[in-house]
Amino acid sequence: MAARLGGDEFAVLFPETGAEQANSVIHKIQNDLLDAVRKDGWKITFSMGVVTYIQSANTSDEVIGMADRLMYDAKNAGKNRIRHEIFEADSNPTRHISD
Fold first, then answer.
1. Please, what is the end-to-end C-alpha distance for the chain in angstroms?
2. pTM value?
3. Chain centre distance of CA 11
4. Smallest Cα–Cα separation from 33: which of 80, 75, 70, 94?
5. How far is 50 from 52, CA to CA, in rounded Å?
6. Which residues on neighbouring strands pair with residue 53, listed in sequence order?
């Protein structure tokens, strides 16, 4: 499921998808988007924040807030990057940094 959150921010939901599969799909999406805009000569990048919850998050706002924070981490690290955190039950996140 994909939705526009506002402005140039979008959310993609992958229910019941593991971290490895989500990471693979989000990289494919980023590459496909980059290919599409480069064909038209646009100089656009795609910074993405990805969060995987092994068990359900407390609220949807928590999920969106975490993904948004990760997306801004990606932008601040030089843009066109992916930041991915995995949350196990009651634990600190495991961070996966992709460039």
1. 24
2. 0.84
3. 8
4. 80
5. 7
6. 87
Tokens of 61: 């706002």
Q: What is d(CA 33, CA 15) in angstroms, rounded to the nearest whole number?
A: 22
Each residue's pLDDT, cut to its tens digit, for the chain (99 residues) gives: 889 999 989 999 998 899 999 999 999 999 999 999 999 999 999 999 999 998 888 899 999 999 999 999 999 999 999 999 998 766 666 666 666
How far is Cα 91 from Cα 59, in angstroms, rounded to an integer?
17
DSSP-based three-state secondary structure for 83: strand
Which residues are 2's β-sheet partners? 12
Residue 45 identity:
T
Judged by phi (left if over 0) then psi (alpha if -120 to 50, else beta), residue 92 lies in: beta
